Structure formats: structure tokens, C-alpha cells
Amino acid sequence: MSLQLRRISLNNFRKFREPLTIEGLGEGLNIIIEPNESGKSTILEALRAAFFVRHATKNQLAQSFAPYGEAVAPEIEVSFDIGADSWKIAKRFLKSPQVEVTGPQGRAQGEEAENRLQALLGFVKDSSQRGDPATYGALGMLWVPQAQALEVTAPGNIVRNSIQATLEAEVGTIVGGAAYERVRKRIDEQYELYWTPGGKAQSKGRWQAARDRDQQARQAAADATTRLDALEKSFGDLETARGRLKVLERELADETELEQRADLVQALEVAKAAAQILETRKAEHENFSTNLDRLEDLHAQHGAARAALMAASATFAAITANREQLTGQLEAGRTKVTEAKAALDQARNDRAAARQALVEGEGRVALRQRRAAIADARQRHTELLNLEQQLGDARIDAERLIPAEAVARLEANDRAIAEARAGVNAGATSIELIGDIADITIGGEPLTPNIPRTLTGETQIALGGGILVIRPPATAASAEASLAAVFERQALELAEWDVVDLAAARTRNDTARDAQGTVQLLESKIAGLTSAQPLLDLAAGPDALKLLVASLAPDSPTPDDDAISVDQLTRRLEETETAVVRAETMHDQAVKDLREIEDKDRPLAAEQAGAERDQTNASDRVAQIEGRPDFTGLADAIVKAREDAAQAAVKLAEAKRDATAHDVQVINRKIDTIDSRAKAGQTRRSDLEKDIARFEAIIESEGGKGLASVAAAAAEEADAATQALVRLDEEAATIKLLKDVLDEARAEAARTFVGPVAQRARVHVERLFPGAELNFDAELGLTSVTRSGLSEVCGTLSKGTQEQLAVLTRLAFADMLLEQGMPVSLILDDPLVYSDDGRLDLMTEILEEASQRMQVILLTCRDRAFRHLAATRVQL
Amino acid sequence: MRFLHTADWQLGKPFGRFDPEVRAALGEARFDAIDRIGEVAAAQRVGHVIVAGDIFDTEGPEDRVIVQAVSRMQRYPCRWWLLPGNHDYARNGGLWDRVRRKASDNIILLTDPSAQEIEAGVWLLPAPLIHRHHLDDPTELFDSMETPGAKLRIGLAHGSIRDFTARGETKNQIAPDRAKRSNLDYLALGDWHGTLKVDPSTWYAGTPETDSFQRDEPGHALMVELAPGGEPKVEPVRTGRYQWLLRDWMLQDASAFSAECDVLLSAIDPASTLLRLSLAGITGLADRVEILSRLDDDLRHRLRFLDVRSDDLVGRPGEQDLADLKVEGLLGIAAEKLTDTINARGTDAISARRAMERLFVEYHRGGQA
Questions:
Q1: Is residue A867 part of a domain?
Q2: B100 and chain A: CB distance < 8 Å anywhere?
Q3: Beta carbon pairs, A and B, within 8 Å
Q4: Residue A738: which of B327, B328, B359 has the nearest Cβ?
């Protein structure tokens, strides 16, 4: 039956901060027209909130209901009819949330109200954060927000389940679902015993236990077999040891070796005797040989001694003759050396005398030179004193030089005097009286005739009786005063320098300058005069000279008796030295000559001595040999000794043969071998007996454990475990196969479910796309459309087509739910915006028809597109 | 002169493939067989029990096994002549040395091939095995054994007669005409677990307590009576407790199975019966499920032991079976798929058949629940 919305009222919901009420919604088609952005999507959101969002939830979705930035309580009221029953929901979110549902059973609040709504409309509690339309049930799919309009989504579980009954009824084969579920549940339970949900073998439970048992049993069997094998090996080892022992015992019991040993011992005795004889024969042979050797040696020695004696005598004679020749030369040489030595000594004495004479002559020369130097020094000293006197005078003159600035001052003053005088003269009155000047006084003084006089001040000239007062201008007087000042200054200056006037000063300065030159001249003279005299150890400078002169004794005249000059003495020395050299050379030559002769003589003397000694030795040796007792009859003795030695050699050879035939060492070695073999056999026997005892002990201790039984039992247990495991493997495989088959069967059945949906959708689709076939998947999602044999996957279709298909499949589901008796209504938010005019007309037609069966509400901003439809219109 | 001929006691056999309680019962029964032989000997006043080898299952049994064996034999006045066989061959320091340390006077270990005069003029010629396998005929030594003043010569050996080569056994072979060749009045043989008469003087006693599914007969010992110059009189005496039955049943439906079951149960003592049952034939799936559930729910509990081989019992889903499932929608689809796999006879066919069977089992179980 249709769900009829009657009235929607909201307050403080999203952009509706003021209360908004939509009333007058009628059965069939309703069109709510409003411009963009005025909140039609919000109205749908509010409807979903009123029905599906729990009042007490604080999830993100609920938080988004409050108008932006306001902490108020969003409120929604919805009135609707289902069949003949009227319902009303009043919900408030966030602040003091509450819900009240009023229906035919009366009023309910809180949880009960929510539960009543759920039961009525068939949805489930949404526990997501952002709101999950899949939990909203049928209306969640049929109330299509703008954003989802394009999606050709599969219906959620709830919808599928709720239409399943319809589908199963129609499909016909889908009966006995209960039996399936029962079997399925059992198989699933058994499946879980063997397999994980991911299809892997369970790591616990009976299958794993069987695997563990199998593995453990195999391990136990292997262990038991290993132990048994070890025991069996001990048995084998024991048998081997026993066998070896038996063989060994047989060998040890064998008499052959003993007999061999006895024979060997006997042979050893024989061999020892032979060895003894050999030793004796060796000694005899040795004895004879030694005797023969000795005699032959004596004979040979005698011969050699005689020969040596003869040779030594000959040598001595020859050397003696040689030496006699040399003796004369030697004497001459020695005399010559003696003479040369005397001459050399004489020459050396002469040279010493000449040297002495020269030294003395040179001493005299030096004394004379010194004396001359002293006289010279005295002379220079006298001159020095004179020069120093002059220098002192010159220095005094030079020091009277008036400094240049003083001279300049004097000159300045002189000029100032001249200038002042000129000033006086200029201002002064010059008078001259010519003629008789008697009686004429001037200033009371007689006047000198013909001499002009200058007046500078008031002057009274008595002329006769009268007095002529001349008054020169006043300037004259001041000029005179300044002149007087200048004079005074000049006078002071002159007095300071002790000169009468400027000229005198200049003269003095000239003199002083000359004196300065004289000083320098004298100083250089003195320096030249007082040069250094090394002979007297005199340094340069006047002071040294004065000091020297002061230290000298008064001059005493010395006789100059030098008869022979130094040169002569020198020449004499050179002559003596030449004589010495010559004498030395003569002497050296003489010595050399003598040495040569001696060198020749010395080896001869040595040879002579040696030859003499050899001669003596040889004759001694001959005498010694001939003096020996066995010398007499030596030749016969030698012949006999040879015969004896030959016989001994023959006997020795025989003895050697005998000894070799009976080698003691070889026999001993053989005996040792036999002995050690016997000993090794004993040791081996003892070892084997120990081994046997050990193996027997092992067998006795291990044998009692029943290892063979244990191994056999373990092997059978392992087989049994493997068989049990195989059975469980089969069981697990069977269960798995059965489960897979059941899954496949369900999937196959699910495919048959979609037929009816496609059929219903096709009624509408046929009108839009004639001949098109819709393909749904097992989840009832529309996957593709087949048109004229070509299959198109949904996502590749045009947006318009997708939207139209989405609306049409929803309509198909709505129809099926309607048949189911579910309360259904269809709300489309701004639908069909991508549709062209033709399709739009068809779609609106289909929607109009649908509105005959259920309430259809279109929320749109496009009044014109739907203007032609007969519908309840609500203008916001 | 009378004596008991037995062999192949196989004491200490582990029976490791069985559940622990079955295992214990079977093991114990082998010791009990000694008592039964001893009791027969005592009752029949027979002085000698001749055991032709394989007294012990292995050459290295646990001490308990030896002590049990020895102590059981000691209870009876007769003399026990024990011959080492291939399972318990004689070797230095081995099993028989251990037994000898524990044995009493009435137990004689024949570990050497030398004739024994067990009674005046009655000589026992043993051919003990000293290896697991002998390439030579161990009984050839009989010819070199001295039996002075013998009225009766009894050979004792363990191994197979050459005629058995069909079974591929070539070890420890004994000439089939050994009795005649070595002038024996009787040749007591062991190794073959069933009672077998080779010729009038040559017998296999078989095991006194059966230990495998080779034959249905329970174990026996042989009562032998000898007289010089005469043919031996040989009488089997039952000594075995358990019957090991092998059964192959061809079945068409569950009722045939019921009939077979009834026949079987009427003939046996279920508590001392071990059954290996091979089922073959083609039945409806429902029948197969019924048969198997009866086996599991009923017969298995009655018997001492049951081993069912049912791979050859093909459960074909009948039309009714499939029709039943078909109305169950999804289950019908699954059954169809499995049937297709089975009919394709691919490698998955066997698994698919099992799965199909399981589907039916679960479906019916659900129906009953």
C-alpha cells in the first residue's frame, strides 16, 4: 500500500532557521516547486531524519542538522497515512532530544516510538557516523536524494530480503528454503571444524589433532626404529666380535710360530759364534797389516831421509858461494855511509852558525831603527807643541765671531739710524751762516761758519742783540727722539759685542772666520804629525805622542859599529843551507845503496841458515833411522810380514762369509716380529673380550625393554594414525566440496531471483528503449543493458540513460514492495535533469502512471518541465 | 604316544591398528591360548606340547610378555618344547637367553639343532631358526642328527613348504617331503597360521588364537597320536577365542543387507567376533544411507570390532531421491550439480559421491529432527 505523506513541518533544521510547513500533499503525484538553493534537498533530508535517524543520536549526521553556527534543537514533524491509519512523528534532535509517534495504537515516545517506526517501515538501527542509507530499508532506496539519482545502485540487504518472499514465490523452484538453511547450518558447522572462513585448514580441532597424532606417531615409530636399530647393531657387533675372537683364538693356538721361534733361537746361537770368530779374524788381520805397514813405512822413511840430506848439502854450498860475492860490496857501502854522515854533520853545524849570526845582525838593525824613530818622535813632539800654540790662538780668534743674527741686528739698527737721521734732516731746519758770524751764538754757543747746521728744535740764535728764534716743525723733534732711541739701542748692541761700530764688528767677524780656517789647517797638520809608529808601539794622536816622549829616557848617543850587513848574513845562511841539502842527499844515497846490498844478502843468509839446519836435521834423521834395532834385516822382515798379512786376509774373508750366513740382527728381528705378533694377538683378544662384554651388557639392558615390540606397536600406531588422518582428510574435502556446491547453488538461485525484477523494469524500459534487455547481478544491481544484441556496461551509458534506468529500476522495486504490502512512496529530488524532451515526456508519463499506485513526490526547480502534469503543486 | 602340536603364538603382538580396548583384549587372548592348550594337555593327559616357532611376535618383546608366557606354561605339568621361529629366532644374548633366565624345568628351549629324546625311544629333531631369514632348508640338519634306538622320530620346524611359492615366499623353505626324506614319523610345522595338512605326516598346526582376517576359523592346536609304523592320528582342538571374519556382501537394497545381517548374527558370538565387511553393489542413496547408519549405529556396537569397506557400495540417487531434493529448491540444485560431477567420472567423482551422500544424510537427519 502507499505511504501518503500529508504534512511536513520543520524548524531550526539546516538552512530553515524559521519554521517551515508543507501542507496539502495529496495522493498520487505531488510536485514541490522551489527555486535553486531554497532547500528542497533539505526537505528530503529532514524527512529521512524524521523517519530513520534516531532522536538521541549525536553522530555527525545529527550534528549537521543544526543550522550552521547555532546551538539549537532541530525539530521535525511529519504526518502521514498508511492505508486507513494516520500517523504522526514529532522528533527533536541534539538539545533535549525527543520523539513522539502517534499511530492507530496510540502514542509512543522514546525508544518505543523508534521501534514502532522500525517495525512499521521495516528498517534497522543505523549505527554509522554519517548515516547509512542501506539501513533505511525500502524507503531509503525510494526516497532518492539529488546526489544519488544517477547511481544505478543495487538495493540494500533489507530490500532484497523483503522482496525475497515475493521473488521466491514467483520463482517457484525456491521452496524448501528452510530445509536448505537447516542443512546449510549443519554443513557450515562441520565446515568450521575443518576449515577457517578463509578456506584454510583449521589449526585446531580434530583434524589438527589427527595431523598431530599422525606426526607424533610417525616420530615415535621412527624413534623406536632407531633405538631398535641401535640394539640390532649391537647384536651385529657382538656377532662380529665373537667371530673375530674365534679366528683370533685359532691363530693364537697355532703352534707353527712357536716352532719357528725355537729354530730362530738356535740359529741365533750359531750366528753369535760366527760373529765371535769374525771379530777374532778381524783383529788378526789388523795386526798383520799394521806390522807390514810399519816396516814398509820405516823403509820408506829411511830412503826419504837420505835424499833430504843430499839435497840440503847441495843447497847450502850454493848459497855460501853467493854470499861471499856480496861481502866486498857491503863493506864499501858502509864506509861511504860513514863519510856522508860526517859531511852532513859539518854542513849542519855551519848552517846553525850562519843562522845565529843572522839573528844577531837583525837585532842590531832593529835597535837602530827604534832609535831613529825615537828621534823622529821627539822632533815631531817639538813641532806639535808649536802647532798647538798656534791652534790655541787661532781658536781664541775664531771664538770671537759675532753671530750672524747679531750682525743682522747691528745692520738693522744702522739702517734705522740712517732712516731716523734722514727723518730728522727732513724735518730739521738747516741753517748756514756765511760770513761773519761773530757774535752770533746759537743756543748760547758760537756758531761755526760755513758749516750748515741743522736745527731740530726751537733754537735761539743770538744775532747781535737780537735773538733769532728758529722753530723748526714739531716733527723734527720727534724724529730726533726716535733717532736717539735707535742710537741707544745700537750702542747697547755694540757694547754687548764689545765693538765700536758696525764696521769693527764686520772686521772682527772676518778675522774670526780666517781663524776658523787656520784651526782646521792646524788640526790636520797635528793629525799628520802624530801618525802611528808601530815600531815604538805608538798610537796615532797627539796625546799618545806626548805620553811617549814623556816616558823616554834622555837621549844617549850610541856607537854605530855595524860592520856586516844583514844581507850578507842572509846570503851566508843560504849558502850553508844549500850545503846541508847536498850533504843530506849524498848521505841518503849512500844509505840506500847500502840497503840494497843488505837486501840482497839477507835472504841469502836466511837460506843459508835454513839449508844448514836441513842438512843437520837430515843427517840426524838418517842416523836415528839407522840406529833403530829393527833396521837391521829390514828387507827380510818386510817379505815375511807380507806373507802373514795375505794369510790373515784369506781367513778374514772366510769368517765374514760365515757371519753373513747367520745374521744375528735379522734373526732377532724375526724373533721380535713373532713375539710382537703374539703380544698383539693377546691384546686384541683382551680388547675383543671387553667389546663382547660391553655388547652383551648393552643387549641385556636394552633387550629387556622390548624394543622390537615397541617398534612394531609404534609402526602400527603410525599406520593407524595415518589412516585416521586420511579419513579426516576425506571428510574435510567432502565437507568443503559440499559447502562449495551449496554456495554455487545459492548463487545460481540468486540469479534466477533477478528475473522478476528485470521483468517489471522491462515494462517501463521497453517504452524508453524498445527491445532493450536489462541484466542484474545476484545482488539485484543493474549491471548492463543489452540493446540489439549489444551489451553495454552500466557505467558506460550516458548520464541521462543512467538516471532514467536508475529511476525505472527503483520504480520496479517499488512495485514489487508494493505487492509485498510494504508502505511505499517515491520521492525524487530534482530528477531527470539530463533527459531530452522526448525521454522526459515518457518518463513523466511513467511517473504519472506510477502515481496511480503510490504517492510520488517530485522536488524540482523546473516548474516548466512538469507544468503539463496533473498534480498537487506546492509552492514554497 | 600322544602330544599337542601348536605354533605361531605370536605373543606380544601389538595390534596397533585397533582401539586401545580391542588391542588389550586381543593381546590378552593370546596369553589365554596358552592356558587353553595347557588345560587340554592336562585334561587329555598329554605330557608334551611341541611349539613349532614364532612363540613370540618379535625377537625383542617386553619382559612382561616373557614372564606372562613362562608363568602360564609353568602352571601345567606337561613339558613345553619351544622352537625359535623367524619372528623369535635364536641368537646370542637375544630373546631366548632372556627366556632361559626366567624359564622353569618343564620349558625346554630348542635353540640348538640337536635331537632330544623326549621319552624312551621318542626323539624330537628340532630345526631352530637362528636368523630371521634362512636361505637354506633348516630341516636338512635332520639327516645329520643321531637318534640312537629311536622308535619314533618327530621333526619340528618353522617355515614354508616349497609349494607355497605362489605367495612369493622364498625364505625359510622346507622341503615338502621332508618327513619322508628324513624318515620322520611326524613333521610338526609352524609359520602358516591356519591348520594345514601337507601330507599324513606333515602338518601345520596354525595359530591357537587367530590374529588376522586371513580366515574365518578360530585358532586350533593339533592333538597328535603316533605309533611306530602307523600313520599319525591328528585331531584339531579349538583353542581360539576370537573369530576374525571376512565378509563380502553384494547388496541391492537395505532389506538384502538386513537379511545378511541376520544370517551373520545368528551364526556368531558377536562379542568375540571381529568383522571386516566389504560392501559392494548399487543401491539407492537412501538405502545406502540406511545401510551405513545401521552398521554404525547397531552392528558396530554389537561386535568386538567392525571394519567396513563401503567404497564399492555405490549409492545412486534414485529418481525419488532426486525428486525429494528437487522440491527443496537450493538443495535440489546442489544435488544436481553433484550428480553431474559424479556422472562426469572425473577425479572429483569420488569426493562428489561422498558429498552427495553427506547431503542426503544431513537432509534426512534434518527431516527426522
A1: yes
A2: no
A3: 149
A4: B359
Any domain includes A125: yes
Residues of chain B contacting residue A730, judged by C-beta atoms under 8 Å apart: 351, 354
Task: Name every chain B residue with its beta carbon within 8 A of the beta carbon of A745.
Answer: 330-331, 333-334, 337
Phi/psi of residue B82, nearest 5 degrees = -105, 125
Residues 6+ apart with CB under 8 A from A271: A659, A662, A663, A664, A667
Alpha helices in B94-252 (DSSP H): 95-102, 178-181
Which domain covers residue A89, as residue numbers? Answer: 3-155+781-875
Residues A504 and A414: their CA atoms lie apart, in Å, by 13
Of B12, B61, B91, the CB nearest to A235: B91
CB distance B16–A712 less than 8 Å?
yes
Closest alpha carbon within chain B to A699: B93
Nearest-CA residue of chain A relative to B12? Answer: A709
Cα A865 to Cα A149, A310, A328, A830, A839, distances in angstroms: 17, 173, 177, 11, 12
Of the candidates A317, A296, A326, A325, the one whose C-alpha atom is nearest the C-alpha of residue A614 is A317
Closest to B156 (Cα-Cα) out of B18, B283, B54, B239: B54
**Boundary (domain end) residue, out of A471, A502, A526:** A471
Rounded to 5°, angle at Cα A758 from A757 and A761: 85
Contacts of B352 in chain A (CB under 8 A): 737
Chain-chain contact of A745 with B330 (C-beta, under 8 angstroms):
yes
| Domains assigned to chain B | 2-238 (3.60.21.10), 243-368 (no CATH)
CA pseudo-torsion sign B129, B134, B138, B141: negative
Amino acid at site A379: Q
* A175: nearest CB among B12, B329, B351: B329
Do B358 and A735 lie within an 8 Å CB cutoff?
A: yes
A783-834 confidence digits (pLDDT tens):
777 777 677 776 677 777 777 777 887 888 788 778 777 788 888 887 777 7
Interface check for B166 against chain A (CB to CB < 8 A): the answer is no
Q: Give the lowest-confidence range in A28-42, A94-108, B203-217.
A: A28-42
In a domain, A94, yes or no: yes
Closest CA to A684 of A391, A111, A249, A260: A249
Helix axes A707-768, A177-194, angle to 10 degrees: 140
pLDDT computed for residue A171 by the predictor: 47
Q: What was the ipTM of the complex prediction?
A: 0.72
Residue A444 CB neighbour total at 10 angstroms: 8
**Which of B18, B98, B329 shows the shortest C-beta gap to A749?**
B329
Q: Which domain CATH number covers A142?
A: 3.40.50.300
Task: Write out the DSSP string of A606-617.
Answer: HHHHHHHHHHHH
Which residues between 317 and 336 in chain B have a beta carbon less than 8 angstroms from any beta carbon of chain A? 327-334
Contact check, Cβ <8 Å, A709/B62? yes
Q: pLDDT tens digits for chain B (369 residues)?
A: 999 999 999 998 888 888 888 889 998 999 999 999 999 999 999 999 999 999 998 888 888 889 999 999 999 999 999 999 888 888 877 888 888 888 888 899 998 889 989 888 899 999 998 877 777 788 888 888 888 888 899 999 998 886 554 555 456 688 888 888 888 899 999 988 888 888 888 999 889 998 888 777 788 899 999 888 888 999 999 998 898 988 888 888 888 888 888 888 888 888 889 999 888 888 877 788 888 888 888 888 898 999 888 877 777 777 777 777 776 667 777 888 888 888 887 777 888 888 887 888 777 765 443
Given an 8 Å threshold on Cβ–Cβ distance, is A738 in contact with B358?
Answer: yes
- Count of domains observed in chain A: 2
> Does B92 touch chain A if contact means CB atoms closer than 8 Å?
yes
Residue A170 domain-assigned (yes or no): no
Among A471, A489, A523, give the residue marking a domain's end. Answer: A471
| Residues of chain B contacting A228 with CB distance shorter than 8 Å | 60
